[in-house]
Amino acid sequence: MNKVIEQEVSHYEGEGEPISRIPVGISSCLLGDKVRFDGQHQLDHFVSKTLGQYFEFRRFCPEVSIGLGIPRRPIRLVAKNDEVRCVSSVDESLDYTQALNDCAREQRPWQEELCGYILKKSSPSCGMERVKVYDGSFPRRDGVGIYAANLMSQFPNLPVEEEGRLGDPVLRENFIQRVYVMWRWRDLLREGLTVHGLVTFHARHKLILMSHCLTTYKTLGPLVAAANKSNIEQTSETYIGELMAALKIRASRGRHVNVLQHIQGYLKNALDADDKAELNEACAQYLRGQLPLIVPITLLNHYFRKFPNDYIRDSWYMRPYPAELSLQNDI
């Protein structure tokens, strides 16, 4: 990395404005609460220490909430009569499915305030995917925890992830980015939804969307352009649903490079041949996996400080979350 980029990375990573912490739900065992069936916890240090600086966690354990003791006999998912039930692992006549579903619905008032949720992997109540479902002698891994399924059904646009998958740099960045997008969307709604507000929100997120799904990028532009006072509510519901669905798609290196090259086009009349060559090489090295994403983005930010552009300055793609999280150092 050359000296200019090193200086700019240092400057970039030191930037950031103080913000209030973002409300995010979480399985309470991941914060160290001893609520598991064996009386232990599953403290996740990255979640509690790193994300805890930015997220205001709303901890919850549905199994404790429905009255199961600590410690307790474990529960599991079983296939019965073409449906999945949650029962005691030692006595299948003890069925907790309805209680967990009722519990999930009762949490709606505080869940509505959330911008994300981190669930406990493999849990018959909180697992997001690949939970064991017992069907005869051999379990299959295609289940979803009862509480988690209800949560995701009630709030399909809510960013949801499991702590185990947060170990993957791409999935971790994807989830945190979606949380910040949802946080900004909730701010927009709190301020009062207007056509101007929706247009501005979309403009600032267009490049992020382009890095995830070009198809949705092309369809949401006309949707927003057609917004007016009479259809703003319906348009906004369609918009956020399609946006959050598109952002679930992992942003590949190739799509990021397409965005970086698109951004570079705003500098075509400002940079000399050497500067352009340096940018192109940084993008090429990122595409080959030789550099993290932070390097070409930081280099672009360096040039845009010299040659300002309002659209790029306001784009969340250039600074999608606090630089201190250092997520772009890993992708």
What this model shows, in words?
Mean pLDDT is 92; it is low at 1-18. The strands form 2 sheets. This protein has a 4-stranded parallel beta sheet with strand order 2-1-5-8. The chain has a 4-stranded mixed beta sheet with strand order 4-3-6-7, with no helix packed on it. It has helices at 3-13, 45-50, 62-65, 97-106, 108-111, 146-154, 169-191, 195-212, 214-225, 232-247, 253-264, 273-287, 294-306, 310-314; strands at residues 22-27, 55-60, 75-80, 83-88, 117-119, 131-135, 138-143, 160-162. It is elongated. The longest helix has 23 residues, at 169-191. With 331 residues, the protein is α/β, with parallel strands linked by helices.
Give a quick rundown of the structure:
This protein is of the alpha/beta class. 48% of the residues lie in helices and 12% in strands.
Chain-wise SSE layout:
Elements: H1 3-13, E1 22-27, H2 45-50, E2 55-60, H3 62-65, E3 75-80, E4 83-88, H4 97-106, H5 108-111, E5 117-119, E6 131-135, E7 138-143, H6 146-154, E8 160-162, H7 169-191, H8 195-212, H9 214-225, H10 232-247, H11 253-264, H12 273-287, H13 294-306, H14 310-314
Parallel strand pairs: 1-2, 1-5, 3-6, 5-8
Antiparallel strand pairs: 3-4, 6-7
